[in-house]
Amino acid sequence: MKGLAPRVVTAVMGAGLVIGAAIAQAATPQKGGELNIVVGSKIPSYDGHIESTFGMIHPIKPFYSGLIRVNPDNPSSPTDFVCDVCAGDVPEGTEGGTKYTFKIRTDIKFHDGTPMTSADVKATFDKIVFPPDGIASNRKAYFKMVESITTPDAETLIFKLKHPSGTFIPSVAMPFNFIYSKKDLDKHGYNWHQKNVNGTGAFMYVEHIQGSHVKGAANPNYHHKGKPYLKGYTALSAPKMSVRLQAIRGGRADIEFRGFPPKAREDLVKALGDKITVQESDWNCVLLVTPSHKKKPFDDARVRQALTLSIDRHSGSKHLSNIAIVKTVGGIVFPKHPLATPVSELKSNIIGYSDDIKSSIAKAKGLLKDAGQSNLKFTLLNRGVDQPYKVVGTWLIGQWRKAGIKVEQDVRPSTPFYASLRKQKDFDVSIDFNCQSIVNPIADVSKFLPTAGNNYASFSDSELEKTYDRLLQTADVDQQKTLLRQYEKRVLNDLTSQMITMWWYKINPHRSYVKGWKIAPSHYLNQSLDNVWIDQEEKKRHGL
Amino acid sequence: MAITEFNALSADQLPKQKTLWNHVTRMARLQPLGTAGFVVILVMVFAAIFADYVAPYDPVIENYEYMLNPPGTFDETNERTFLLGTDAFGRDLFSRIIHGARTALLVGFTASFIGAFAGLVLGVGSAYFGGYVDLIFQRLMDVFMAFPLVIMALAIVAIFGTGTEKVIIAITIPFIPRCARVVRSSALALRELPYIDAARSIGYSHTRIIVRHMIPNVMAPFLIMLTAFVGQAILLEASLSYLGLGVQEPTAAWGLMLQGGAEEFAESAPWVPIWPGVAITLAVFGFNLFGDAVRDVMDPKLRSQN
Questions:
Q1: What's the mean pLDDT in A450-468?
Q2: Chosen from A242, A315, A321, A323 to mutate, greatest number of chain B CBs within 10 A
Q3: Residue of B nearest to A5 (CA)
Q4: In this complex, which of A315, A319, A409 lies closest to B248 when CB atoms are compared?
Q5: Handedness of CA A420, A421, A425, A426 (dihedral sign)
Q6: How many CA atoms lie within 13 A of B1 on its CB side?
Q7: CA distances from A2 to A8, B75, B82, B85 (A)
Q8: What is the pLDDT along chain B (306 residues), one digit of tens a residue?
Q9: Spatial distance between the Cα atoms of A517 and A527, rounded to a whole number of angstroms
Q10: Structural domain spans, chain B
Q11: CA gap A297, A307 in Å, rounded
């Protein structure tokens, strides 16, 4: 029944993946060349401390460094961090995990020529962790455990924590923590970086033409010696996916960092064959189903449990991964992190994860009957974005139909969708998401806390809060694991306060002459571009 | 007194009574394109009414075993044929096209009938009363007509939200001033005719004069507008759904089907966007051709040329 074409595409894609990986490992980086990136979102401002969009990270991050970062040679690991502007290895906590001492490199200069010292790093983190009144800091909440930041000398930076914390180091490694010059902050104020750039990154700002592109040129004084390999890069603005796809296909662009859906990957591979390398990864992003507990009948746990029981996640993973950017079945923690609950354990311990969907649906029908909701009807609020929101929304409606639940979909553009989800909270059940940059499980699962600012399920539960408080204050991995399991069971089983659908899956097809860039579990990570290089011989083969 | 004698005529001497078939063939001969349009409309109406019986499969049931199967796929194991292929969710496109006719006609007929009738009443009323009533109504209509149809519909959807009923409202509102303006121009001439004065002088109520004596005389432009509106409404519904602001999944609607397939599957599964595109084109074409024919038949100037 299936044609030959899909098999050919799969074979070529597989070959592309293998060959691409082999070449990437074997070849020696070459200097020179310009990288053309396509970016599907706008740049609200240049200030990493207040922004959360990849539309800013992809074109602007190469201008900046961080204190530490994910290992650019091993970005798929959620626990491998290396120093960026610090020296040596990422420090271990001392004094019972409450003190972190970073040695700061003294050979680093900002693009304007100012030498960088520990005072600049302190000024940066003071802005992020202790912003003055009226100054926004999007990641302030991640650093609640920080008591003080001090600099005994120009080479040393000390973070003193209120209690040991497993979330501290991943929080420091977040790619949004751009290192700013103290001189700039003192002279121009805390809002200057929204419209101006002066970093220590691999590339220096050249120009930004609004709605067109951002250009960067190699920083000759970059602190990671011998890098960057590229002469420069241009980040082209292309909000429509079809435009980004055609840009890569036509050679106008070399790479897109957010990711394409599976069909787009197949089209590119079919058109360009071995001129395309495809990198794929699990993605630290998950779509949730959030029922409003203040609305009847979703105040009844049995009804919420029936909803999760009707969802066949395993079959969804198999089929939806062919048409959408979702794939991996998991619990509340990023499935590839050591703290995540394995699928085998989820199957036996968490409702809605069983392989036996028939039995699950029968249970769901029973629960609905007990709750007097055999003819349950409701409206699913969804965001008007195809990938993966609308695809998953339509799939969920089909899943619920099998349990006799009738669902209509109310798809709204992003602004009214967020207004309904976050402010009015007038929905029955809504699609929601939990997307993060650094994989930081303990911080990431705060989304499920009833008191979290980004939890829209409208409920309260003191047990969940207590478990999370204990989780926050332990640095012991085994204890973290135990507490996370308790927390997960409470969220997904006892309360079924929210439901996990599937974790996203990142697909990055790019021109095969782009080397050195490795996919990470988030589209925010590994975007310094200092490892990226162009294979000129290979590029000639592409006729470009 | 002379008596004229009449001889009874035999049956074959009598002029032949015209049958319905005669009328149909005559219409087909005089208005071949209009007839073709009417046939398309008939097929659509039939599909919409009997969709549950005509469609081979449930249009909303997902079947991932059959994702993106090309047209004419036959599954021997389950003896299933997908005449027009399947979409990304494994749903039969032929069944969705048939059920989509129901959505298209529901939106098309409801929006155009309500919009045109409201416009008829407002247009005739405005012309009949004249003065400040006419002035205020017409300025209001000017405001509405200042916006292009799609922009107006988009604005209304933004206020009311998405879904079939709301799309009907969004399409109905911009139709009202367009019909009212055309109908008013005909009614203005009628208002000055002596029989309207006569009706006033014998004390007929305003409602009676408008409903019994004016509206029937503006039916020609009204019917032309009405048929044109149906095609426009179908196109507008498809446009709104294509933009993600109209009917929502999993409802079968042509614009929505086009939107779901156009960007992602145009290359790898072109049948996904092609069939709803063909359906929209045929439907709009059918109503436009039929509307043109109605205009030709009802316009005395054009009729005399035939």
A1: 92
A2: A323
A3: B268
A4: A409
A5: positive
A6: 0
A7: 12, 10, 13, 12
A8: 455 566 666 767 766 777 878 877 887 888 899 999 999 999 999 999 999 999 999 999 999 989 999 999 998 888 889 999 999 999 999 999 999 999 999 999 999 999 999 999 999 999 999 999 999 999 999 998 998 888 888 888 888 877 888 889 999 999 999 999 999 999 999 988 999 999 999 999 999 999 999 999 898 889 888 988 999 999 999 888 888 888 888 999 999 898 877 777 888 889 999 999 999 999 999 999 998 888 887 766 655 554
A9: 9
A10: 45-305
A11: 12
- Check if the beta carbon of residue B265 is closer than 8 Å to that of residue A263: yes
CB A165 within 8 A of CB A97: yes
pLDDT tens-digit readout, A411-429: 888 888 888 998 889 999 9
Q: What is the DSSP letter of A421?
A: I
Strand duo A232-237 + A34-39: pairing: parallel
What is the share, in percent, of chain A residues with pLDDT greater than 70? Answer: 95
B60 in contact with chain A, both atoms CB, cutoff 8 A: yes
Q: Give the mutation candidate from B256, B268, B271, B272 for the A interface (greatest A CB count, under 10 A).
A: B268
> Does the interface ipTM go beyond 0.85?
no
Q: Which of B69, B163, B249 sits opposite A1 (nearest CB)?
A: B69
CATH number of A31-254+513-541: 3.40.190.10
Report pLDDT for A452: 85
Residue B243: closest C-alpha in chain A: A384
pTM: 0.83
SS3 A106: coil
Q: What is the dihedral of CA A432, A436, A441, A444, to 10 degrees?
A: -50
**Token digits for B167?**
């799309």
Q: Mean pLDDT across the stretch A216-241?
A: 95
Location of structure tokens 């999007």: A138
- Specify burial of residue B146 (Cβ count, 10 A radius: 0-12, 13-18, 19+): exposed
Give the residue range(s) of CATH 3.10.105.10 domains in chain A: 281-504
Residues of each domain in chain A carrying CATH 3.40.190.10: 31-254+513-541
| pLDDT tier, A217 (very low <50, low <70, confident <90, very high otherwise) | very high
Cross-chain residue pair A386–B265, CB shorter than 8 Å? no
Handedness of CA A360, A363, A365, A368 (dihedral sign): negative
Q: Which two tokens stand for residue B261?
A: 């397939």
* CATH number of A281-504, picked from 3.50.50.60, 3.40.228.10, 1.10.3210.10, 3.10.105.10: 3.10.105.10
**What was the pLDDT predicted at B159?**
84
- Report yes or no: B61 at the A interface, CB cutoff 8 Å: yes
Inter-chain CB proximity B248 and A264 less than 8 Å? no
Residues from chain B that touch A325, judged by Cβ atoms under 8 A, are none
Of A267, A322, A408, the CB nearest to B67: A322
C-alpha–C-alpha distance, residues A306 and A29, integer Å: 55
Which region holds residue A516: left if phi is over 0, alpha if psi is between -120 and 50, else beta?
Answer: left
Specify the pLDDT at position B30. Answer: 84
> What's domain B45-305's superfamily in CATH?
MetI-like (1.10.3720.10)
